[in-house]
Amino acid sequence: MVTTPTRPVRRKPVMRQHSRTPSVPASPNTPTPSTPSAEGNAPAKKGLRARFGQFWTYLEGSDKQASGASYYMILGSALALTAIGLMMVLSASSVEAIAEGSSEFDLFLRQATWAAGGLVLMLLLSRFGARAYRMMAWPVLGIAVVLLVLVLAIGVNINGNQNWIQIGGFTMQPSEPAKLALAIWLASVLARKGRLIRNWKHAMIPALPLGGLPIGLVLLGGDLGTVIIMMMILAAALFFAGAPMKMFTIAGIAGIAGAIVMVLVSGNRSDRITAWLRLSCDDGQDLCLQADNGLFALASGGWWGVGIGQSRQKWNWIPEAHNDFIFAIIGEEFGLVGTLVVVILFGILAVATIRVARRYTDPFVRILLGSILVWLIGQAFVNIGMVTGVLPVIGVPLPFISYGGSALTFTLGAVGVLLAFARKCPQHQIPAQ
């Protein structure tokens, strides 16, 4: 049999990978592979602004993946403010407690107990998601309204305000959980409106009638300071939901008119306004005494303070120094540096919350985080402005720091809500137009 020679097997030619970019004729200014580019030779950007940008990118993460630093910034600032608050409550309340014949650790131990409960609530709420918060919106608002009605029925009147419920040795201020309930409910209701929120009718109903119900109940109890904070929460929710700006103009005018009426019908409130305007400060035994001594405490603290526990103004010169005017004691004992530390911690909390909210496209999350942010930072601004004489004394405590068990517990609960969304912070997305 005759065989024919077979052709040698040849390998299939390999196709060369070509760049998709069109070739450009070389020019004298065009860098070649062997010639380093002008950008390669350019020195890296240096300076304070560039380094701060790199540091902030490290904290926040890239546009594709969050670093998780915002979670620890929120948690760390809240815990630091709480620790400062416990320390200052012990320092500011010990003198008056000894003068009354009780233990100097009495108020401190009460505050520490409430702080422990607040930490438990914070950790619990940090495990929930958006769906769980939407489901609890109506129940928590209903519970808050019931508690506020009970305040008017069986509440305790303290310093002219009926805003506490006392059962045995247990005292609670229901307006504090009402703030958190109001923020959750408003976020749930307004997020469902979608683009309809741009219509003022949809923006008002049911936000103003039902959202104004707990505010009205607190107002009936006479606590104007808490009413102002709750109105700030309502306004913030409408703002972050996208309500028309005309509403805020009208609401602002109506709010100013209502505040004037509330001041005129109450002798206590009108006296505070005249004291703030320095119209009734002729003698030393007037409403100017607390504000003046608060300024004296800040002035005597200087840059570095007189030392922890060494405040002079807490010796009954500032009434209830552990409460609304505790910021003045911080300034006296730790000086300007100590007050700046507190302000910076609030700033860290605010910036971290904003960074978390920017990564969400869900309107419910944005409205809820924005409302809580305005609540905490706005209340801190009002208190610090009150102590420094920028605002009249209206009885608003400093979040995390002033004495008040229920206030501290539910403030930490609000931080738990922030942590719930910072813990599962999504990739940065651009909202659909």
Q: State the separation between the terminal residues, measured CA to CA.
A: 81 Å
Low-confidence stretches: 1-9, 11-42
Number of strand elements: 3
Number of helices: 16
What string, H for helix and E for strand, traces the elements in order?
HHHHHHEEEHHHHHHHHHH
Radius of gyration: 29 Å
Q: What oligomerization state is this entry in?
A: single chain
How much helix is in the residues?
A: 55-70%
Overall mean pLDDT stands at 81
* Major sheet size, sense and barrel closure: 3 strands, antiparallel
Q: Walk across the major sheet and give the strand order.
A: 1-2-3
Give the amount of beta strand, in percent. under 5%
Q: Output the structural class.
A: mainly alpha
Give the overall shape, derived from the CA principal axes.
Answer: globular
Task: Kindly describe this structure.
The protein is mostly helical and 433 residues long. 62% of the residues lie in helices and 3% in strands. It has 16 helices and three strands. The chain has a three-stranded antiparallel beta sheet with strand order 1-2-3, with helices on one face. The longest helix is centred in the last third of the chain and has 33 residues, at 326-358.
